[in-house]
Amino acid sequence: MACTTILVGKKASTDGSTMMARNNDMFVADTPQKIQVIPSKDNQTGKYVSNKNGFTFDYPKKAYRYQIVPNVNVEKEGIFGGSGFNEKNVGISATESVYANEHVLAFDPLVKNGIAEDSMVVAVLPYIDSAKHGVEYLGEIIKNSGSPEGNGVVFSDKDEVWYMEIVTGHHWVAQRIPEDHYAVIANQVAQEEIDFNDPENFMWSEGIQEFVEKNHLNPDHEGFNFRHIFGTDTEKDRYYNTPRVWFGQRYFNPEIDQSPVSSKLPFLQKANRKISLEDIAYILGSHYNETVYDPYGKGSEREKHLYRPIALNRTQDSHIMQVRNHVPEELSTIMWVCLGVPAFNPHLPFYGNATDSDPSFNDTKLNWNLADGYWMYRTITALVEGHYSELIESDRDFVKDCRENLIRLVAETDKQAQRLQGAELTEYLTKRNHEIVDAMKEKAMKYIGELVKSSIDLSKLTYKMDINL
């Protein structure tokens, strides 16, 4: 799988929120997703076993309530929980697939039945109390069970965003994103210099320095550049991965001149302005807009298909995990989710302190069903893309109108919610999740009707008599 991740520290955002975001790109264009809330448990028993690779663990006795965005066809595809907040206001986005080089893998091979992406959310999110604790908890699992694949995992809370890269069977490194920085990551080992004298901002697997030294793995004369030691630098990286990082950094820092195929794009950057939720949504929905590399643009046929876009038809869900610091903690977390392709659809807010997402999202059918949020928004994608040049402006108007209304609805919810506490607040936020989904469904269905009419008018099966022929 191939995803794109964006991370933003709280002093780099417009409203002081920490934000982590990712497009969850699957192997095919049709892998239905749903959004569920799993209740807390105080006397949990039993054993979890992955139906993908057999990874197993004993359920801890206590589990926090948490959100999850899994596959619908769990029996065939596996869970792949994707993202969510737990009731302690800790978020996870799992995972960004990353790939180590053959030298490091030769000395620490991947572990076939270790913890993989399909199990990560259910194995970690219900049991952690902070973003840093998430790294520690997952690191302990990897120490004991190993990893069968390379993964970039993000954890967030109200103060911190931590990015963890698991690269071999047992080795990983994590770092706290500086509060005034952002990062864009695209299926490559991204972290650079690791400061082993700064445990407040860096974490790592036991023995990683000795592992590198013993096996002569560091290509640099000095320092510990994680990307250089563990990552790859191939032709595929330069056409499939680095252009996505280039476009994100180009958007946040247009004053910096960089090449889309550069192997030296920095992991961390300071934007030339504060970053908004809408900025992140734009990047997640982008396809090299306003460049010759845009598949819908005016470049040559070679240029338009040269680099892999950020938004794809196989983007199954796109999420922005926001922890806000200007509201009480009990209503601080919002998981903004787009189950349609984000190039054509808005991200909808789901409050973390709730017991449900919405029936139209938590019971998605495997086959097309316009009553499901997943299929409704993907229908918009199919209709707009069918006549892109004629319909894209109407789609942009639709998304802008949705965002305007969503900003207003969230502000209204926040105002009312601050009068409530405890179970009453959770009940209210659950109700608002439903009401916001319904308001957006009304707009989406109206727009689908307009698209159908427009598509009929744009049919090639038309004829006008010209008597002068």
From TrEMBL:
<keyword id="KW-0224">Dipeptidase</keyword>
<comment type="similarity">
    <text>Belongs to the peptidase C69 family.</text>
</comment>
<protein>
    <recommendedName>
        <fullName>Dipeptidase</fullName>
        <ecNumber>3.4.-.-</ecNumber>
    </recommendedName>
</protein>
<keyword id="KW-0645">Protease</keyword>
<dbReference type="InterPro" id="IPR047804">
    <property type="entry name" value="C69_dipept_A-like"/>
</dbReference>
<dbReference type="Pfam" id="PF03577">
    <property type="entry name" value="Peptidase_C69"/>
</dbReference>
<dbReference type="GO" id="GO:0016805">
    <property type="term" value="F:dipeptidase activity"/>
</dbReference>
<keyword id="KW-0378">Hydrolase</keyword>
<dbReference type="InterPro" id="IPR005322">
    <property type="entry name" value="Peptidase_C69"/>
</dbReference>
